[in-house]
Write a structure and sequence with these properties.
- With about 150 residues, this protein is an all-alpha fold.
- It has one domain.
- It contains seven helices and no strands.
- About 20% of the residues are buried.
Amino acid sequence: MNFKKPTKKGAANTASMLAGATVGAMVSDAVASIIPLDNPTYARLAVLGVGVLGMLTINGSGAVAEGAKGAFAGMAIHQGVKVSRENLVKVLPASATANSFVADALALSEVQVKQALAMPLQNRNKELYGMSSLGNPNFEQPRPVITPMSLLA
């Protein structure tokens, strides 16, 4: 890895990528919510897949191409983080999440996460999601509404 002197073109491309990533991450929740799947994890994985595919298929190095790559990267990263958090909370014991760094990393202040941590580990999937594993969804509970502002709280 080599460092080089920043250029105006490089700065514009980087700003475009960051703006695209921000917009992509914000829009990805809306996209995941309109996918007609009963399991929200599968919808998030579909958006993650579209994000990765989008990054792979865009060719170019201008500001527009970098912005589009950033948007797809933002979608994939945001949904990947959400899927990871949801599934880590299901398997981590309460003692592992007592650490404030782990709690902040997993956004343990969210209501759904607090409910999950209050349950015995064996019952978390069945009680929260109506299934014993990720492979057999039987959803009867509405999905929680998570907005960008709720993640900051």
